[in-house]
Description:
The protein is an alpha/beta fold. Helix content is 45%, strand content 14%. The chain has 25 helices and 18 strands. Strand 6 and strand 7 (178-179) form a beta hairpin. Helix 2 (31-44) packs across helix 12 and helix 4 (88-100) crosses helix 6 (123-136). The longest helix is centred in the middle third of the chain and has 21 residues, at 410-430. The chain is globular.
Amino acid sequence: MSTDATPRELVEPGSDDAEFVFFSGKGGVGKSTVSCATATWLADNDYETLLVTTDPAPNLSDIFSQQIGHEVTEIEGIENLSAIEIDPDTAAKEYRQETIEPMRQLLDDEEIETVEEQLNSPCVDEIAAFDNFVDFMDSPEYDVVVFDTAPTGHTIRLMELPSDWNAELEKGGSTCIGPAASMEDKKVQYERAIDTLQDTERTTFAFVGKPEDSSLDEIERSAADLGDLGIESQLLIINGYLPESVCEDPFFEGKREDERAAIERAEAEFNADAMATYPLQPGEIAGLDLLSDVAGVIYDSEVPTVDVGSATDVETDQSLDIDALADPESIADRVTPVDETRYLFFTGKGGVGKSTIAAASATKLAEAGYETLVVTTDPAAHLKDIFGEPVGHEPTSVSQANLDAARIDQEKALEEYREQVLDHVTEMYDDKEDTEIDVEAALANVEEELESPCAEEMAALEKFVSYFDEDGYDVVVFDTAPTGHTLRLLELPSDWKGFMDLGSLTKGAAPAKGDQYDEVIETMQDPERSSFAFVMYPEYTPMMEAYRAAKDLEDQVGIETAFVVANYLLPEEYGDNAFFANRRAQQEKYLCEIKDRFETPMMLAPLRQDEPIGLEELRAFGEEITGLSAVPEKQTEVTLS
Length: 641
């Protein structure tokens, strides 16, 4: 790790121009806490500061104990600090309205309807969020703007879509992010924003993560993606390590040793200018005193304060029976096939343990006699590490009867998809003598559009769809299910104009493709055939992000959540002190809220000292997970002679 600067030097403004600090990281790692602490520290140091979040599960209001919302609001008790919680749905609605209004005087009703369909692309949601970022990056009244939830490499690449949009205007063309005409006015503004993101003199990009290898793996991938776009990540903050003073038994001593190893790995491998760490607290971080403690540790090198003497108050039902929240028989019903193949989808944000849950579920189903295939679409693709065996792009047998595994290789899938789309465009227009279309120009436009991250999603989706044609399996388990965002790509309008419509091109690539997509969606919507399960741990942000994703899946695609998985539950037999008593009370509070919000059966999975590796450990872990041990043995037909 580079040590050219301190965290303080990286975030403190050093010029007369407004400066920007972006915090990135998966849900539940403490990104909002660190963002709020940073903004408060900057304001306390007399910098006029604006804090902006586009997190779909914002908790700035909870942290500052006041209502904030979709308008810039002054923070009570802190001079120089204002904040805004940008509502993604409202932002997308405003963006669509701003885009379509100028066209109403120029287009007829049918053309307006086509544009409205184009603007239903899920990528437009990301453009709308970035649009808000751009607005606040043109805010000269602030010394520094702190962004909680930075734009990802995926989003930024959308900004770099075709450079020849002017040519598309002549044909009324469209992109995967809407009509080319709607983007032209924004293009210069977006380019200026990207230039600012790439300027390390004005922008600091920080990653927040947990002291876990899986969290660090995700950060390294995201940092590499941004690096390819010319955006350097300068600051790494590892949040939530176990304080040594509370680890009083072998279980938590072992967990702490693993965390120390992860922190040492980060120090050795992560190419950032500075790094800081902050410990896990006995309760959620809220209030100015705790924010001051976080900032003091990160920016002023102070010793952290952790009150381990007594548990802070957490409202919870003292008579709560956690096991009573679960319903093993209902879980078993939702994972067991009946007459046709059952499709199981485990989804959730990075770091919630969905790959291990998926692998343990697949192992137990195979052990019960069901021919099972487990597939990962996760870019990390660490099924091979979990099983301790090679897992390839095509289904591969592992050392368990009835169990195969596969991983979707993103690069191979994208190359297959590129060839399919380009071949289709050539076939569509090569034989049309009367056309005025320049086929070479069309192919060039499509090739440029295939650089869009939407093409990667479509490619993975194509491969994903192919597993619905796999014969011989009773159960197919998907680790990392497609989100509502991704599935909406299958539903893009088939009558888009122009060559740059990936949804249209894909649907037209073969006559049966549209019908095939419809059949797959119908299968996923059928609770007798498919079960979607959201994996989370019982804390506010993971719960709210899963809840929002589940609502999106239901509202946009008509797929209901079959059950939820509450992972990493603290064991009762370890951690016998006030610190863990408070953490358990907090988990119980959110378990009740998860139950109330989702109104579905709950699969419970305990925190383990080590992640289960290998089939033997996966089988043992499966016995601890609610519902898997209740899966009935497969009944084989007996033929009487």
